[in-house]
Amino acid sequence: MGMVLKVKKNTHIDANAVLVYLIMFFSNDTYLFGTNSNAMVVTFSRYMLIAMCMLLLLKMNFKINLTAQKGKIIAYAFIVAAYIVIAIINNELFNRVIIKVLCITVAFLLCMLLNFDEYIEAFKKAIYFVSISAVAFTLLAYILPGVVRMFPYIVNTAGIKIYTCLFAGLIDGTIGNLAIRTQGIYWEPGVFQLYLNLAIAFELFGRRAINRNRLMIYFIALILTFSTTGYAAGAWIMLAYALVVRKQGDTTTSITKRFLIVTGLFFAAVVVLLCTEVGDVVLGKVINPTSSGTAMVRLAGVVVNIEIALQHPWHGIGMEAITEEFVRVSMASNIVLGWTEQNTNTLFYQFAAHGIPYGILFTIGTFKFGNNFPGRKKLVWIVFVTLVLMYVGENLQYSSLPYILIFYGFGWKDKGNRFLETHE
Questions:
Q1: Residues 130-153 pLDDT 10s
Q2: How far, in Å, are 205, 301, 341, 363, 380 from residue 350 at the CA level?
Q3: Any idea where the domains of the chain sit in the sequence?
Q4: Alpha carbon distance 117, 130 (integer Å)
């Protein structure tokens, strides 16, 4: 008698995770559609924003619940109206305005379709897929760098070659080095760390039990970014988890064990960074603040944006003029020891480009996002600091992600959200 082998098939695909992935993949945050030197490819991603809006509306059957989603609707109306008025005053290019409004609209519709719990679960699964692809491609580059150089590549607007397996990419200049910086589908490792740290925060701060397999992959990918900002944000999240976060079923013993593990990992990381060549990669540009490296650029992202905002308080200077003005102000600054055209701060950019009122609106929504988590009185500030740290190194100028967080922030009391069931 022959043996019959039954194989359990798991063909379930999370449609929400696929949707979140597609919104990320076709966004300006990626190397394929954000910094690609091929203008036709970049233009294609703009049309995909329209397609995403239509898809989201289709999934909602073209119906919007005005009463259950009041907070998000009011926030969307205020943000779009304010941005359009500011854009007109600053004589922004029409195409630029349309793209920005589309990014905001995609964020709004996604928040209308998915409640907070559904979104973070879909987000974690999407980033898990990106992380696995990125880690695998990076390991291949360590083992067989020549094979990676046989893959297709794109050339970004800075003339840098990025090899791609479609689901992950690697900058040519890092292949063969001690630190091959993984970047996933994003245009540089600093953007990838932002998404990774957000996934880690969702995993550790959320209501559901922690998925250790996913968390491990997130951390491996984060380590391989070799991002100074990413490491700092990750350390902050772990510290908050060890000292503040309490999940259902936690005991004094489990909390103590958690604290000791996090403390041990922290000191191990310090030893590695200070005693190995990895530390030179991660911290090398931070040591000398007068260089054109990380420290000076990050400082300029705060100081120069504040100075520009104070000079143009009501409607900012506009996205067209800010690059030239950023260089001028950084050269004249007594605080920034150097000059740069790299405006890498998502939060403070809003104040300089769009004015202090818009910047405050952006900041309030970002701050209120922390209300979505259990024990929100303690976590609201922790989550806000986490976002501020992640935003320090990247300017998500044409991205839906910051506005997704903002709309969940302003709409955290909406009746359509499951996260109202929080534990103080």
A1: 999 999 999 999 999 999 999 999
A2: 27, 11, 16, 9, 21
A3: 15-286+355-420, 288-346
A4: 20
